[in-house]
Amino acid sequence: MASLGAWIKAARPRTLPLAVTCVLIGASIARFGEPELTPLDTRFYIVLGLSLLTVIYLQVLANFANDYGDYKKGTDGPERSDRAMASGDISEHEMKRALIATSVKAFIVGCITLGFAFDFIFSMIYGVLILGSLGVLSILAALRYTIGRNAYGYKGLGDAYVMLFFGYIGVLGVAYLLSHSFQLSWLMPATFSGFMAAAVLNLNNLRDHENDALSGKNTLVVRLGFKQAKRYHVCVIISGWVLLLIFLFGTGELTEWRGGIWYVLIAFIHLKHIVFVMQNKDPKLLDPELKKISLTSFVVALFMILSVTV
Asked: What is the pTM of this model?
């Protein structure tokens, strides 16, 4: 029987702050765009909390699926001590059960979230149907990243899916749950969230590109090549920040969002990161950079949610 430590390793806790980022940004823009959503609104916090739990379940599901899929395809071998199945810490049978259980939990919590978001009346039938369908698609996307013959992570489509689910679906979906509305300007912070998630995935693929190429995992980095993928990385991060800063400084007073200087400082941290990535020649040295981008993106989202709730 697998130990608790093995399951924690398979869940990859360091990926969770980035997953939470899209929920916090979605809640922030909903509150900022709809002044009638007072910080003391109980529904706001209930839906926010349930959305966070749903996204965490989905991220853990994706991590379990990635561990399982890469092991089954031979991408991860015994040398990958950081992988639960490849290292022998979790059996195939145990992981299959965990995949089913986590999918069910994500689905149930997602349904409860919809219930609270629409006061269990479901008068906005189209919104419920759309968000419910997106929830099911999110579960399927988490499972199909590396599992199956047509796993999209092996076809260089991982970045597109990450941008979609951690950006537009995650941010705009949560914003709609809380405000029952949509504003075109929300596409800017949603794009930032998606691009930061894509940057973290790209760093992961830059680090592993040699082994991925040998095992037939044709990530975007393998398709583009190491040098071109680094240029793509620069474009993703800079584009994300340009859009976010336009949104923060252009859609309201700086004092309303608060902490404007800190956003700029974090942007400079990312610029320093870009310089390091472009000068780097050893893929293994990129591993600490994943945590840096993930945590700083989370801090941005944390500043945004505190601006509208405190």
From this structure: 0.90
